[in-house]
Amino acid sequence: MKKLVLIILIASVFSPSLILAQDVAFGKNKVRYKDFDWSYLQTRHFDIHFYDEAYPTAKFATAVLESSYVEISKELNYLIQRRIPVFIYNSHNDFQQTNIIPSLIPEGTGGFTEVFKNRIVVPFSGSYEDFRHVLHHELTHAVTFDMLYGKALSSLVSRQRLFSMPLWLAEGYAEYSSRHGWDSWSDMVVRDATINGYLAPPWALGGYLAYKEGQAMIKYIADKYGEEKLGDIFRNGKIHLTMNRTLKETIGVNEEEFWKEFSKEMKRRYWPDIAIRKDPEEIAKQLTKARKDGSYYNEKPAFSPEGDRIAIFTDKSDYTEIVLISAADGKVVDHIVKAQRSSDLESLHSYVSGISWSPDGKKIAFVTKSGGKEAIFLYDFSKGKVTYKKRLDYYNILAPAWSPDGEKIAFSALEGNKRDLFLYHINKDQVEQLTDDRYDDIDPSWLPESNQLIFSSDRPHSRNLKIDINQHLYVDSGAFMPGDFEYGYYNLFRIDLINLAVTELDVGPGQNKAPAVSPDGRKVAFISNRNGIDNLYVAFLDSTRYFAVTDIISGVKSLSWSPNGKAIAFSAFNKGAFDIFMLKDIAPVGDDGILTLTDFMLGKYDLLRTQHGHKVLVAHKLEMDSTVNGNVAVEWAGDYEAYTVDSTTWTAIDSSAIDSVTPGADTTSVAADSNLVDKTGIRNGEFVFINQSASDPLESIMIDINDTTGHSREGSTEPASFDSIPLPLPSGEYIIKKYETKFTSDYAGGGFAYDTFFGLQGQSYFVFSDYLGNNQIYIATDLVNTIDQSYIQAYYFYNRHRTNVGFGLFHSKNFYLDNSDHLFSDRFYGVQAFANRPFSTFSRLQLGVSQYFIDREYHDFDDDRENRNSKVTTGELAYVTDNIIWGLTGPVNGRRAKVSLQYGINLFESDDIEFQSIDVDYRKYWHFKKTFSMAFRVAGGASFGNTPKQYFLGGTTNWIGNRTLDAKVYDVKNLYFADVVTPLRGTPYYELSGNRFGLVNWEFRFPMVEYFVMRFPLSLVIANVGGAVFTDIGAAWADNNFKGGTSEEGSRLKDIKTGFGFGMRANLGFILLRYDLAWSTDFRNVSDKPTYSFSFGADF
Question: What is the pLDDT of residues 838-874, one digit of tens each?
Fold first, then answer.
């Protein structure tokens, strides 16, 4: 639907104006900085598309997708009906350029699944564990879309499309499945929400909480009612259409009853943590006040060399920015840079990157997306601006770290299908690669001598715990794969810059990340989740001693040492947002630095499965005690996920035996017709399928759950069909085929009827595109009897390159009654061509050329006007800039502007319509306290030529019910080529007209009704109703005949009209409704009665 709306809007930009009020077309741009040469390979169920040298990444995805599909199929008891196309981008920057969906993709988006063609689209970030998780997550959406909607065309006209999955169900199940039930990050979010009272009922869940609380809800259903109920929920949703009835039918309770059960269980689970652990503000000084100051994200603290200031990322001002805060009290002392407003600073990568100071404290280094490339910027405090920009040919540059000698900046970056460490030599302007392997190397931190780095990596480490199904050791989902390739299990390492030798550090078990070397070089602080929560730890580099220095309820995300080594600034998740804290007591906490394991780490939340069906863990049978050896605790590792022993999930085999695998044996190659996948066997890039059943060593500690579902599957019993590509080769490699453009339907709808009097009638809409979205066709028809009486539009758009082009044709027949009640008709048809060239996300140049034909016919016998045929050629060249931030009812921050040149010429010498014009529109928005906003607009235009274009001022955009028309509006040149300029409230449509105009609008917007419930006489709930007070001042005049004021009958305005008043705006979800009450004034008199208007659409 988004694609359909976009195409209609694009077409409307270049359509001639009609008599309804218009608004100027703005909007940001999706920039194609590069062209992609796509290929694809096929597996049993997937067509996996990739480009450049990404075959190894695509091959990795084959194993992940096929094995994940087996798990999802078992969980939902469903087999897909059609093949699933998958598109893999080599970086997030490339991913943001996709045409598969038209909307802009935010930096925090890890992937998406498009519903019409069921396409999975994901970027590769450098972390194979993140990649595995996103692939599995998006695959759950593809499977459930297939389950709910089947083929898009048939579903569009069937009742089942009315079931709209709530976000908590869609994303909750996706997280549940891709995280194999539960994980420590989800545990942190739901714990924080439960303890701080912002858990939301399912009908009110939205945003990120819908993912994590939704995951908890899905797990609760699976644990209490059985995992087989998950598939039943989707099946029953197709029948019962509402979530309330679906839950009642599936698990016997409605939404409200389910919410009471679930919320009580979460309180029972997490409230005891209050007595065991501390909030961050209880152990450290809180420096930022998220939520209170309008921010939600205060991250990546970096101490200045003097220790008096800390640089951080914050979203306090809507745009992500770098600010300096006082290390003493957290007050903002300087605003450095803001992103998301210009091509130089499109993004600061604040979620994953960092900030680093020069040793002398005069500059900071940070990473930005600039002009489509990754760049390292240096900001000079003495000059108050960025003084150095180094654009690099790498992707996903992270964690810049300025060396103590001031000569180098270390960073992590993605090149090809691997993320490695690099050095940028500032004076030499050279980049040196430090690591070159398939492991994910991140977070470099310097030792004082500038000759060694400590970093985090998922390369093999002796602390990485192997899977031992007899002892039931928990491991992170996907974090370990025996054989030649381990990934996803992060620990700390040291690299020597002289010989590039990498050695591991023993800092204890767990996922160990974000190292920061102390100023004296003796210690390293880092983040570890070894007790189930991301806490701060400190390890001594000259020994094996390490200990926890925090034991908080939520979790730590980033850290920085003070220059004297006596304090650590860190960011922590707290009450639903991230804040900066200062820890001054750096000493062991817990039991001599050993922390109590969370219940999740103790396995109390886990539901385990065997090949015999569903099982539950008997908690008292599982003993999980920490073994203390001196000051070292052997604690359980990773984001402890439930390890499942199942012939359709993880079947552990000895990696040494993989060499002996041959087709025809019990273990077969990829080419085997088997749906049993072993995720553990990888050697030399070859993924191994397992079709044998293993005994279950967990049987003694498991009890059966009654399983009445059996092992049948809904859906096809045969694999989705291949095209002509053969199966994989015996070596396990795949045949690669070039992508070819093939059009398929995105949307189709409408209906037809035949009447003996009116003949054939009907409406239809069709949208076609190729799988990459580079080619789009839009067709709309409204047939009435014959073709010459019908409405037809057909447009083609080509978006593969940076410059987007398109062309189309249209035809319509409209009948009108003029002010004298004379009937006439216009047959309006023509062709159009257009192109736009984006310079960045925020600015573009657009060009449109049209040829219009207008055949006017007068139908009344007493109407002596002659029929006429007009042929007019028009063109427009416009420059558009837009960096605004949207609120609920309109823009709230930023600015947007448009300057356009238009012309109309008589190429066929059939009419006298000929004009030139220039129009300017500038708008600026200010946001206060994340609640109030002010909007200012100034616009003007002038037209010249034999028949200059007319500007009509008055009224408001999309005024419901107002049809006031001036007789001259029906003139061909005005009906199709004039501009209707709004708002000028307090006046009717067409109050002013001329070939010159000026308009100024000012509006103050504020919240009015946060939540309103009415029970009688109607059941009505209205939320987030906004209010506004406004003033509009406008004028339109002919040529130079303008007189702004007069002293006749007292000083007053003459050609200028002014309106003022107040209004309300309500976002009803499917439409924005506006109500305005306005008075007109000439600054001497005010109208006796106000003008009221209901209208729809966003505020200007």
Answer: 999 999 999 999 999 999 999 888 888 889 889 999 9
Both structure tokens of 535? 């806490």
DSSP 802: S
Reduced to 3 states (helix: H, G, I; strand: E, B; else coil), residue 270 is helix
| Mean pLDDT to the nearest integer, 399-419 | 95
How many other CB atoms are found less than 10 A from the CB of residue 776?
A: 24
H/E element, 855: strand 843-858
Are 301 and 569 spatial neighbours (Cβ–Cβ below 8 Å)?
Answer: yes
In this structure, the strands spanning 119-123 and 546-548 are unpaired
Averaged pLDDT, 946-954: 93
CB hemisphere CA count around 1004 (13 angstroms): 5
Q: Please give the pLDDT value at position 108.
A: 84
Domain ranges of the chain: 2-30+802-1096, 276-456+490-583
CATH class (in words) of the domain with range 2-30+802-1096: mainly beta
Is the pLDDT higher at 17 or at 709? 17
CA 453 to chain centre: 34
Domain pair 2-30+802-1096 / 276-456+490-583, same fold: no
Please tell me the predicted confidence (pLDDT) of residue 607: 56
This prediction has a pTM of 0.85
DSSP string of 131-198? HHHHHHHHHHHHHHHHHHHSSHHHHTTSGGGG----HHHHHHHHHHHHTTT--HHHHHHHHHHHHTT-
For residue 983, say if its preceding peptide bond is cis, omega within 30 degrees of 0.
Answer: yes
| 3-state class percentages of the chain: helix first, strand second, coil last, to nearest 5 | 15, 40, 40
610 neighbors 702 (Cβ within 8 angstroms): yes
Q: pLDDT value at position 407?
A: 96
**276-456+490-583, superfamily in CATH?**
TolB, C-terminal domain (2.120.10.30)
Taking CA atoms, 1025 is separated from 602, 702, 777, 936, 1029, in Å, by 47, 54, 38, 21, 14
Residue 246 predicted with pLDDT over 90: yes
| DSSP label of 656 | G
- Phi/psi region, residue 917 (left: phi>0; alpha: psi -120 to 50; beta: rest), is beta
